[in-house]
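Milestone M4 deliverable, item 7.
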Amino acid sequence: MRTLIVEPDIGAEELGRTLERHGHQVRIADSGAQARPHFTWAELVLLELDLPDVDGVKICREIRTGRDAAVIITSNRADEVDKVLGLQAGSDDYLVKPYGTQELLARIEAVMRRVGRPEPGHPRQLVHGALRIDPVGHEVYVGARRVHVTRKEFSLLHLLASAPDQVLSRERIMSEVWNDDWNASRTIDTHVSMLRRKLGSGDWIVTVRGVGFRLGTAGAGARRLTLLDASGKAG
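Output delivered:
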């Protein structure tokens, strides 16, 4: 795995050696300016928020714009507001320092499992009426219009679309999208609100009071969820 560590602390080199022993290709940058040229190379970015030249939240947003690297924020900032800002900026996880090596490796494994490519034979696309979700390209379309979403928004929408006839509880959403980080529980509503706005209708995600959320349908002529394989054929 190509891993970019964006960290001004001297401990970044030791962390890099640890990750290399676990099979990672590692590059280290100690500032936002140093990190930017490596965004397209990286599959995973471990990002400290306190950088000497720019706030790490801004860097996280930059990575999320047109790039597909997973982002784990590893920061000394432990306040809830910092976690919420980091997650809303598009990070896939938030790990407060100090942390153990095994915890970091477990978090990396969980994040990459959630965002990784589907195994052979798994459906490529989920289609529900005019809504089409491509888990390989991490792309969302409503009709012919591409909808630009953050990684967390994509994960949430994909989870709902994977179980279109079910009401998914907040507990399950927190477990599968936010890795049981209950400090981020309020962001579910924020992400749902943003998705409704980006998809062009509040009907795409239905709130079931006291329970959770389910995938809805916007517009006439919608059909049940269809699974498409990599060639685009219905399964």
